[in-house]
Amino acid sequence: MTDWWKKACVYQIYPRSFMDSNGDGIGDLEGIIQKLDYLKKLGVDIIWLSPIYDSPNDDNGYDIRDYYSIMHEFGTMDDFDSLLNEIHQRDMKLMMDLVVNHTSDEHEWFRKYDDFYYWRDQPNNWKSIFSGPAWTYDKVRDQYYLHIFSKKQPDLNWENHKVREKVYEMMRWWLDQGVDGFRMDVINFISKEPSLPDAPDGDGSPYFMNGPRIHEFLREMNDEVLSNYDCVTVGEMPGATPEDAMIYTNPKNREVNMIFTFEHMDLDSGSNGKWDLKPLNLIDLKENLEKWQHALYKNGWNSLYWNNHDQPRIVSRFGDDGKYRVESAKMLATCLHMMQGTPYVYQGEEIGMTNVAFDSINRYQDIETLNMYHEKKSEGWSHNSIMKSIYAKGRDNARTPMQWSDASNSGFTTGRPWIDVNPNYKTINVEQALQDSNSIFYHYQSLIKLRKTYNIITTGKFKLIHRHHPNVFAFERIDEHEKLIVYCNFSDSTHTFDLPNGEILIHNYHQLDSNQELNLRPWEAVVFYQN
Ligand code: TEU
Ligand code: CA
């Protein structure tokens, strides 16, 4: 099948925090190789690596200095070749992170070419996503340059066809090495409204998200590069609506295979952005995901995710990371994996890793978090109120080292880890999960296996049921002769429904609590199959 990625499950690795093989406290490629059998056991098909290219690490590799070499902390090009080879030997595929909206300011292009970036004598009023202005003055040129992210991440000028050619050439080079696809960082930011107008409140996103030439650029990339390889692509696209996604992912348009939406990740934020905390209303989540499921049915393709290196841990966010950690982690997994689309598992999600709450800001490493902390501090916010947002939403929640065992530093490193380990590693770790046949790990393994056995998980039409129920997310998946019925309880109270017919495919409790009726207990999830 050419659309092999529709039945695949992707596992995201954040290399810095995955496995350190040489004791310098930083995860590396050799560490990943050591854990490939573990990933194979989980059943994943594709491994997506967050950036491993040479970088000064202002934003942990999302600021690339050289697209053609490996970050020296992570290893060498030889290590990369072995990693790719070991992945392929196990019948898995490798998806690279493609960061081409911006480079590092240390990339040679920044000084070598006049017109590869956005240079202006006068900046506009846009603010950077990482706090402060989106423009920085450069003494050498006596001009300002645009950076939507940190000042060490200048935006590339895609209006310049030479920029585009350089990018395509680089992509071909990696595909020729044998990589199987790309996850494209903020790829819907690459086309900017050329006049770069001031924005009413300094939010320039209307002028750079899904900009005027975005579809043209993606199609050109497809014609020039992607269409010549059997590869998979997922575009990270903040601000893309289902209507946008229908264009981006419809195969007729030859752009990308699927995109990452942010809409469901924004539902627990108030009007002042991600740090403005708001409790999730489950009805909002159901309506939103329903919209995406319907929009892309037979028109495109969804990617399904709860977690990545930018998001807090889902069990702490939409689940219960205390008493019902195991049940709620399995429930969330079931809910996600039973929708239509390609599911993504982020390292540690499969063992129910949780958010972390470091006491001091000095223990945080993420540039977004640190900039925001200092900005809010100078605006007069109290330490405690800022920390509350960081505990809930900070990106370092996802970046604490992978918890392999109860050995010191969670078995991640024999040295001092670059970021502190979550103290709960003594009880939450891979070693424990593998020994416990009821673990979250084995639940994920079963979900991934079911995807391979039951086609309806890939093809069935999504239908929301019990739409107005405030605590239970229930839906069906329907094919001509088959049906799945999925019940997920997003609360610690019990809710009663009519008992559906059918065989149970997967369940996070040992038995049903039912006698004519279905009593859905705290965080219970169960899937019925009818044919
Ligand atoms: O993230 C894009 C993005 O918009 C994020 O900034 C997201 O909104 C966020 O993390 C704010 O909380 C991608 C990468 O995934 C992220 O790690 C990078 O920092 C960013 O692009 C810049 O490359
Ligand atoms: Ca290392």
TrEMBL record:
One GO molecular function term of this record is: alpha-amylase activity
A Pfam family hit: SusG_C
Q: Which reaction does it catalyse?
A: Hydrolysis of (1->6)-alpha-D-glucosidic linkages in some oligosaccharides produced from starch and glycogen by alpha-amylase, and in isomaltose
Q: What is this protein called?
A: oligo-1,6-glucosidase
Family according to the record: Belongs to the glycosyl hydrolase 13 family.
Q: Name one GO biological process term.
A: oligosaccharide catabolic process
Q: Does the keyword Hydrolase apply?
A: yes
Q: Which InterPro entries match?
A: GH, GH13_cat_dom, Glyco_hydro_b, O16G_dom_2, SusG-like_C
What Enzyme Commission number(s) does the record list for this chain?
3.2.1.10
